[in-house]
Each structure stands twice: as C-alpha cells, then as structure tokens.
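Hi, does anyone understand the following?
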Amino acid sequence: MMNDFLQQVYFHNRVLDYIIAISIFLILLIIITVLNNLLIKILKSISRKKSKLIDDRFVLNFQNKIKPFITLLYFGSFYLGFHQLKIPASLEKFVDIFIIALIIFFGVRFILSIFSYLLETYWIKKEKNSTRITAMRGIETFLKIIVWSIALIVLLDNLGIQVSALLAGLGIGGIAIALASQNILGDLFSYFIIFFDRPFEIGDFLTIDSFSGTIENIGIKTTRIRSLGGEEIIFSNTDLVNSRLRNYKRMKKRRVSFHFGVTYQTELEKLKEIPNIVSGIISQITDATLDRVHFSAFKDSSLDFETVYYVNSKDYNQYMNIQQEINLKLKGEFEKEGIEFAYPTQTLFLPRMNNN
C-alpha cells in the first residue's frame, strides 16, 4: 500500500521524488544550521579566553557578516533539492534564473560584507585622519559599484542576453574616454598611490624642487600646499608621485653642517685649539650632539673649519635657536682667545724697490 502511494505520479514526478527532494533540502538545512551554531560557539569560547584576535565584538561582527553567506547556502540547498525533480523546461529555466539571481545577490553581499569588515577593522579604526577615513569610504563605494556591475553582467549573461557586444561597445567607448582624459586618469591613479603608499599626509612639511610648504589637502586630481610665504601652491598628483620629495615632518633628527674661516695670521697652536673650543660649546647644549670638527681647507682669504652636529629634534625653530647659540658662544670664545674670523680680503705684497 505504502509502495503504491510512493509510486504515484503528480506533475511528472513520483511522490518518492518529492520526498527525496524535500529530504535533501532539510538535511542540508540542518547541517548548515548545526555547523553555523557550532562555529559561533567555538568563537565565543575562544573570546572568553581573552584572545587578542577574537573578542566579543569580533564574534558579533562575524555573526552579522556571515548572514548573507548562510542565506546563500540555504538557497543552494533548495537548488540541489529542486534539481532532483522533473519539471517542464520553461519552468526549470525560470527557477534556474531565479536561483542564480539569488545566489549572485547574496554572494555579492557576502563578498562586500567581508571587504567592509576588513576595511573597518584593519584600516579605518587605525586612522586618526578624518580626511583619509572619508577617502576610504569613497574607495569602498567605488569598489561596490564595480562588484555590482560585474554581478549585473553575469546575471544578464545567464538570462541569455548577449553581453559580448555590449562589453565591446563599452570597451571602445572606454578607450576613447581614456585617451581623452588620460591626464585625469593618471592623477587619479597617482591619488591611489599616495593614499596607499603614504609618502606624505596632511600636515607634513615637504620640499619639492624649489618649493616648500605644508600639505593642506590631498584631492583626487591635485594636492594643495601652503608655502612659507603664505600662498597656496597646487600640484597635480602625478607631478608629486614622479618628483623627489623631502618630508621634514618624518625627520627624527636633523644633521647640520656649517663652515667658518679664520685669518691666515692665526697661530698654529690656536688653530689646533679651535676644534676643542667648538666641541666644548656644542657639548654644553642639551639637544645637540657633536659629530666632528675639522680644519678642512685653505681658501683664498681664510683657513676653513667644518663642523657637523645633530639636532635631536625635527623642529626647525629649535635648530635655528641652537645654531644661534653656537654662533654667539663661538664669537665670544674667539674674542677671548684673540682669534679673528676671516672675511674676503686681499693682501698685496710688493717687492722692495732698489733705489740704485
């Protein structure tokens, strides 16, 4: 009796076929639910152990981000069970397209949720610059548009629409647009290089060729710098990426090399004493570290000394204060020792003339 019932046919399928299809769907549904709950339970157990990588916030975010993926698996289970049945070709095609559309939709949502989670966790939360956070949001939106566009093309292809001609047309149009706006695209790509490589950020003091100033704004096409004179200098991003930059804000300490000269009439013993005088002056300054002092050259009107020291700070004003202090003390010590600084002079030696 039971066997006869199972063999009865309704809409081209036996009752047994319907039972098998429903059983496959329910079994897969149970397996997915059990595995999901088990995974969440394991993560919660790890979070209770005060793990650095997995905490309660991570588990909560994981539960929210995995929902599209679980929904996708549910539809996949229904799809597998449905394919056990014999149905008219037109209905099967409609159901296939519907399932594929759902898989694409939830698949894209899952991919974007993972990307959004990584962006929130590893990039945005470590940023303190509001401008960079806004730019990251813009990049996230841009990537979402690209991913959804690709998903739409895949869906159209599954609907039987010939997308090759459409893509070819878009390709030709894209080439024409790229040629017409290659400078703009170049600046856009340079913006991404600046954004991810971080050669400089807003607030950094840069020297580019003969220009110097503080970064005020980094835009998609241009970067704006406020010069020491007060005017705004605008550079294209491509120019900055291709230039040699000096970023003084990231300087940990400043190397200073300065020269001074004394007259040729200075005695040898006093020349030997000059390095000791300079060393003694710099050693008394807290934020300065002496590297070397040398009698470096015979010039046309002076005996030149070269001094190299380090300022243990990146502040330019502090460097100038230290250099001023060195200059004043050096002047005072030389006056005590009777050592004269040289200045451009010429001494003319005439031979003694014989009156005979």
Q: What stands out?
A: Residues 254-337 form a domain with the Alpha-Beta Plaits fold (CATH 3.30.70.100). The chain has three domains: 7-160, 192-247, 254-337. The CA atoms of residues 47 and 58 lie 8 Å apart.
